[in-house]
Amino acid sequence: MMQDTPSFGMLIRKTSAFLPIAMSLTALSIVIITLSLFGVDNQPKDEGTAAHLWQLLMAGQLPILFFFLVRWLPSAPRQSLYVLALQLGAGLASLAPVFFFHL
Predict the structure, then answer these.
(1) Cβ–Cβ contacts within 10 Å for residue 72, how many?
(2) CB of 96 within 8 A of CB of 32?
(3) For residue 45, what pLDDT is reported?
(4) What is the pLDDT of residue 42?
(5) Helix, strand, coil shares, percent, the chain, to 5
(6) Sign (positive/negative) of CA torsion 34, 38, 40, 41?
(7) Can you list the residues of the chain whose pLDDT is less than 70?
């Protein structure tokens, strides 16, 4: 029996779809808040709580991304690639200030 392909709207509501986006946006907000409160401080010392939280959020979403791709790419390739594009866009948005300010 053929199963219906899930729509983009249904797929983006799956936890494995929106959680990496939320994690990237949270990481981005940590960077923005830290920069607005303390400015750019490139001293060779311990990175601090904000940097460690950012690293945990960015690395922690990789297994979720992998699960999402394994689960949804075979059954809904087009919709899952759209979600993946959103996930990658959010990840790159979080990476941009880190690379731009050499944090």
Answers:
(1) 20
(2) no
(3) 63
(4) 63
(5) 75, 0, 25
(6) negative
(7) 1-3, 42-46
Q: Can you give the pLDDT at residue 48?
A: 85
Distance separating alpha carbons of residues 72 and 63, to the nearest angstrom: 14
Q: The tokens 């200030």 sit on which residue?
A: 97
Domain boundaries, the chain: 14-36+48-100
Exposed/middle/buried for residue 84 (C-beta within 10 Å: 0-12, 13-18, 19+)? middle
- Look at the block and give the residue holding tokens 């053929």: 2
Of 50, 55, 51, 49, nearest to 23 by C-alpha is: 55
Whole-prediction pTM: 0.88
